[in-house]
């Protein structure tokens, strides 16, 4: 019985250790691929939203505490493949919300939920020329996730 319990605990630790967070992947993309990373917090979002005067967008973004945008411009095939490989490492820690392909273009949306609240959202886009990852952390009600991820809020 001890051996079985030890084996289960060891397997669980191995699986937990293998699952990467968005922060880990972002740091690796920045270090390994020279990605530009723009970090923001609730105050930064509020300041920028006040400048736009867009009350609808301001209401949608109020549930976000912080996040960042990762940009790799002029990505060749090797950098695009590395980006897709790194974002694939998030599949163990986050639930898939949506994936779409159009030729070489790829959009992947992942999330981490607690009950009826989405705690993290990762949007990864690769189009063969550029790679972009947008990460949000906060307490976003599940019924508002469609408002957060659409062509009015994220435009590539």
Please tell me what the overall shape is: globular
> Residue share in helices?
40-55%
The parts where pLDDT drops under 50 for at least 5 residues are 1-17
The total count of strands amounts to 6
What structural class do you assign from the helix and strand content? Answer: alpha+beta
Termini separation (Å)? 55 Å
User: How much strand?
Assistant: 25-35%
Number of helices: 6
Q: Sketch the major β-sheet.
A: 6 strands, antiparallel
SSE topology:
Blueprint: H1 2-18, H2 22-33, E1 36-41, H3 42-52, H4 55-61, E2 64-72, H5 77-88, E3 95-102, E4 105-114, E5 117-126, E6 131-141, H6 145-148
Antiparallel strand pairs: 1-2, 2-6, 3-4, 4-5, 5-6
Helix pairs in contact: 2-5, 3-4
Explain what the structure shows.
It is a single chain. The protein has 156 residues and is an alpha+beta fold. It has one domain (20-148). The chain contains 6 helices and 6 strands, in the order ααβααβαββββα. It has a 6-stranded antiparallel beta sheet with strand order 1-2-6-5-4-3. β3 (95-102) and β4 (105-114) form a beta hairpin. The radius of gyration is 17 Å and the shape is globular.
Write a compact overview of the structure shown.
The protein has 156 residues and is of the alpha+beta class. The protein has one domain (20-148).
Provide key terms for this protein.
156 residues, alpha+beta
């Amino acid at each position: 019985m001890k051996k079985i319990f030890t084996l289960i605990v060891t397997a669980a630790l191995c699986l937990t250790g293998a699952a990467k967070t968005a922060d880990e992947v972002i740091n690796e993309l920045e270090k390994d691929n020279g990605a530009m990373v723009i970090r923001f917090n609730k105050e930064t979002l509020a300041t920028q939203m006040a400048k736009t005067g867009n009350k609808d967008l301001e209401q949608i973004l109020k549930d976000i505490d912080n996040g960042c945008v990762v940009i790799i411009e002029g990505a060749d095939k090797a950098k695009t493949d590395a980006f897709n490989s790194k974002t694939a490492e998030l599949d163990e820690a986050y639930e898939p919300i949506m994936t779409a392909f159009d030729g070489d273009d790829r959009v992947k949306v992942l999330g981490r939920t607690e009950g009826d609240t989405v705690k993290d959202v990762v949007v990864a886009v690769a189009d063969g020329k550029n790679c972009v990852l947008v990460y949000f952390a906060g307490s976003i009600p599940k019924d508002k996730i469609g408002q957060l991820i659409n062509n009015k809020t994220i435009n590539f």
